[in-house]
Design a protein that fits this description.
Layout lengths: L4 H13 L6 E2 L7 E3 L16 E3 L3 E8 L2 E8 L27 H4 L10 H6 L6 H4 L10 H9 L7 H11 L4 E5 L5 H15 L13 E4 L3 H21 L5 H4 L5 H8 L4 H9 L6 E4 L5 H10 L3 E4 L1 H8 L3 H8 L3 E5 L1 H6 L3 H10 L11 H7 L7 H5 L2 E6 L4 H9 L14 H7 L8 E5 L9 E7 L5 H11 L3 E5 L3 H13 L4 E4 L5 H13 L3 E5 L14 E4 L6 H8 L9 E7 L4 H10 L8 E2 L4 H40 L12 H30 L2 E2 L16 H5 L7 E2 L33
Helix pairs in contact: 5-8, 6-7, 7-8, 13-16, 21-26, 26-27
Bound molecules: adenosine-5'-triphosphate.
Adenosine-5'-triphosphate binds next to α7.
Length: about 750
């Protein structure tokens, strides 16, 4: 959490005029409120603001204790002039909360956004669906959602949306399988939001009870789903600024203009933060402050998007939440198959058991019995109405069939679930026959995706990768199987001036989100990721997916590829295949019903490759030399520091001898000189133009292939002279003809409008 520092002083002076009241409060019990942020302050902002919160009417006092200075908080009584009243418009409160013992909290970034009361008023405004969103006319969605769909220029539902939304709205359970990037989130999200926006809410002061639980396999996906749903609510609120007519205005290019015009100013943001949102969505994921997430839950949310691990941690201590989950209105499993792979099986199993009807619950499980004790307070009718949605881009046909014909008898009581099929078959669908919608393309290949492969030695993969990145600039997501591989490639890419960001499970969550956001906003960059990024992540403009190492299963291949070619955009995926990986590739494609020869080889300019090889070799040497110096320094310092801390004299075996001591500066100088020389060499190589064979940079009208014509036609490559600009997909050696693909059921959807 961060606060605008310039605002802090003014706030403090206001506060200091007030008389502190009795009673010290714990920082967690203060009445924190989320402050709406402008889009510029989103995840990628340089200062890393992930979420702002404000607290009003709190005075900070310091107490000297034996353990040092401690900040305490006094809440002013209501009679006091509100420090954040209209006079202080635009101020965000900045109590000396930074001083508190809650560092973890500063790193939390759950997304809980609120929309202002005007949005509720908008509900009554008519929306001209027939003219503005003709393709959505037959979907009886809440007008606020239609406005948001319009503002986001989703002119028509995607095929999975057009099939799933009517069923979900009519109360059915849905199992949806559709290609990556085909809009599955809103296929289940819109019916849930519609239900919650349409229901009459009790007093705004009453605590919300959880209505929908969306389980996601990864933290990033959970955060993304929650943002996606919030965007559907926020668009409404943004449009609710004075010129709400603009929503009804049938102008072209409306969306951008509208958003700009309606960007909330600080004072608006403040007023928004004060009113309860009609629907609140929060993400609860691991790697962020559990304390704060509990606080959000204590305040109450309507929709919870969570990863099973963190949710189960919280549930073990939070009986109220467990009770709410037992009475859910909607349960969603997004990418359920991945959740099982991610090692969250047990947690998922426990959570799902809470959603079973009493008649199906495990009476034999003492832990579960304990959770159930005396908590079944809601009417059974409400529980009967729970709708279950299971969505994925990959789900075996067998499992789909089994889900459909599954017997409605009690699930086996004795053992916990052991496989995904087992687990899904235990889901207590209230619908006697959940509707299974399977729109997955044959072989898992999205129609707008082109695939290629490069066969090379493992040792040469770095050079081929570098070649590909220079040859086909754009946004590339590079998948590796190990974190060590990412750690090795990161410095290499940096030395070669390739803008690279890492994403793996050992990075702090805040850093993960930040890197992802930087990748999203940097046009020519790469994300070096493990399969933590394979599922569900929606970065709209990923040009290439590169499998630096072969995915371990066909599903992972499909999901990795799904990070490009989303929403009917073009995309390219490239397999880098070492000789010892060929068998794996064959097996992987075989399990998708495909043949290895269906994937074309990439054309590679070997002359250019040689030049790049020289750069990569020197870059590796620089990295190695730098690493050696760092390691030596670290080891030396570590022993010395440890000895100093323990106040002991170093043994002669460890302490450098006088001779060695004398040698140290010389050795150091030598090592640094070596690094310097290698760096200079690399700089020289990087500065050299990359010329294709037979090209002259000096005489652009001569040489065996004059490049002047390409230049005049703006067709020349930016970094490789003499090479034509082009897409990777255009540079494939023709492959064996593919089997004709199954026709997509709904082909009227053409993705985003340009
Ligand atoms: N009706 C629509 N028209 C155009 N774009 C849409 C529509 N609905 C959703 N989108 C956009 O399509 C993109 C992909 O959506 P989403 O992330 O829900 O796909 P997905 O099917 O869940 O993908 P994955 O299987 O990879 O998780 C998002 O950027 C979303 O905003």
């Amino acid at each position: 959490m961060e606060y605008p520092i310039n605002k802090r002083k003014a706030k403090q002076s206001n506060l200091s005029k007030k008389r502190p009241k009795l009673g010290h409060s714990n920082v967690d019990t203060l009445p924190w409120k989320t402050v709406s942020r402008s889009k510029e302050a989103w995840l990628g902002a340089e200062d890393g603001i992930l979420e702002l919160e404000e607290v009003e009417g709190v005075d900070v006092v310091y107490e000297e204790t034996e353990g040092g200075r401690v900040a305490k908080f006094n809440i002013a009584n209501d009679g006091d002039k509100h420090p954040n009243s209209e006079e202080d418009q635009g101020e965000a409160v900045a109590p000396e909360a930074n001083a508190r013992n809650d560092e973890a909290e500063a790193q939390s970034d759950e997304l809980e956004q609120e929309i202002e009361p005007e949005a509720q008023a908008l509900e009554c405004l008519p929306f001209d669906t027939a003219n503005l969103l003709p393709a959505w006319q037959s979907y009886p969605l809440h007008t606020q959602l239609l406005r948001s769909i319009y503002a986001q220029t989703f002119t028509a539902p995607t095929p999975i949306q057009s099939r799933a939304i009517p069923l979900a709205l009519s109360g059915r359970d849905v199992v949806g399988v559709a290609e990556t990037g085909s809009g599955k989130t809103l296929a289940y999200g819109l019916p849930i939001l519609h239900h919650l926006l349409s229901r009459v809410r009790g007093s705004p002061k009453s605590k919300r009870t959880l209505k929908a639980l969306i389980l996601c396999p990864t933290r990033e996906l959970a955060v993304q789903v929650s943002s996606h749903l919030n965007a559907c609510l926020n668009e409404v609120s943004l449009d609710a600024t004075p010129s709400s007519e603009s929503v009804l205005d049938n102008g072209k290019g409306k969306s951008k203009k509208k958003r700009e015009a309606s960007e909330p100013g600080p004072s608006q943001a403040k007023s928004k933060a004060r009113s309860p949102p009609p629907v609140s969505v929060a993400a609860i994921v691991g790697g962020m402050s559990a304390q704060k997430q509990r606080r959000i839950l204590d305040r109450g949310v309507d929709i919870l998007v969570a990863t099973p691990g963190r949710l189960w941690d919280i549930l073990e201590e939070d009986d109220t939440l467990a009770r709410e989950i037992k009475n859910l209105r909607f349960l969603v499993l997004d990418e359920a198959d991945r959740m099982v792979q991610a090692g969250h099986f047990a947690e998922l199993d426990h959570i799902l058991r809470l959603t079973l009807r009493s008649s199906q619950q495990e009476d034999t499980d003492p832990e579960f019995k304990e959770l159930r004790k005396g908590k079944d307070v809601e009417s059974p009718a409400e529980k009967e109405h729970m709708q279950t949605f299971v969505f994925s881009a990959t789900m075996s046909k067998d499992l789909q069939r089994n889900l459909k014909i599954r017997k409605r008898s009690k699930p086996a009581k004795t053992k916990p679930a052991s496989t995904l099929d087992d687990l899904l078959l235990r889901l207590d669908f209230r619908d006697p026959e959940p509707e299974v919608i399977d729109l997955s393309p044959e072989g898992g290949v999205v129609s707008t995706l082109k695939e290629g492969k490069i066969e090379c030695l493992s040792a040469d993969k770095d050079v081929y990768l570098y070649y590909f990145l220079l040859r086909y600039p754009g946004r590339s997501l590079v998948f590796l199987s190990s974190i060590d591989g990412i750690r090795r490639l990161m410095p290499l890419m940096e030395l070669l001036n390739v803008k690279a960001f890492p994403l793996h499970s050992q990075l702090e969550q805040r850093q993960r989100l930040k890197n992802l956001d930087r990748f999203k906003s940097t046009q020519n960059s790469i994300l070096l990721a493990t399969d933590v990024a394979a599922r569900g992540l929606d970065v709209p403009a990923v040009d290439h997916v590169i499998h630096y190492q072969i995915p371990r299963s066909a599903d992972v291949y499909v999901h990795r590829n799904g990070r490009t070619a989303r929403a009917m955009r073009k995309g390219f995926s490239m397999l880098m295949c070492a000789p010892d990986e060929r068998r794996m590739v064959r097996a992987l494609l075989g399990s998708l019903g495909r043949d290895e020869s269906e994937i074309s080889d990439m054309m590679v300019d070997l002359h250019m490759l040689d030049k790049l090889k020289a750069r990569v070799q020197v870059a590796k040497q620089v990295d190695k030399a730098q690493h050696k110096v760092k390691k030596e320094n670290y080891e030396k310092n570590w022993i010395k520091e440890a000895a100093e801390a323990m106040e002991i004299q170093l043994d002669s075996d460890f302490a450098p001898s006088d001779d060695e001591d004398a040698d140290v500066p010389t050795k150091k100088r030598k090592d640094s000189a070596k690094v310097g020389a290698l760096k200079a060499e690399l700089k020289r190589l990087l500065a050299q133009p990359l010329l294709a064979k037979g090209i002259s940079a000096k005489y652009i009208t001569s040489g065996s292939r004059p490049i002047v014509d390409d230049m005049l036609a703006h067709n020349h490559h930016e970094t490789m002279l003499g090479v034509m600009k082009g897409d990777a997909a255009d540079e494939l050696v023709t492959a064996k003809k593919k089997k004709p693909k199954k026709q997509v059921v709904h082909d009227e959807w053409n993705g985003f409008e340009a």
